[in-house]
Amino acid sequence: MSAADTGPATQSRSPFTADNDSVAALIEWTRGRGRVLIVTHDNPDPDSIAAAVALRHLLLVKTGQDAVIAYGGIIGRGENRSMVELLEIRMVPICELDIDQFAVVCMVDTQPNTGNNSFPGERPVHLVIDHHAPKTDLSAVYWVDIRTQYGASATILYEYLCLQQVSINTRLATSLF
Question: Where are the domains positioned within the chain?
């Protein structure tokens, strides 16, 4: 599915500040579409993990849809493994998933076809939230929020949670911190 298939898309590029209405529109676009996949970059770091957890929490609270967080590579650094284990963050190696089972694909702290994630490049991606400059054409992506002036993608997701007045539990707050 491309932006052209779904009508007018909300496209956000740096500099951009999401407002409550635009985040609500993103949530409504996602609602009821089916299974959601959130892809981090390969060998995810705390920013990528926290951004994915925050997006999963936002979607679960606002739509009732749980999402699967997937990554390529390994969670190799000791502090990253500890974060995932101690905060009981459910993440799945992308190679263990049937990508066809997901109707909505989100990327956090990474982008399609950039070489730093294991998501197949020919597959559609619907949401991209990142703080790195775009490296490829993202015109087919429904929602793009790239803020290069931010130091972390998790900060963008924190703003979404605040805008939507979603309470943040201790584990999510710890991961965001």
Answer: 3-176
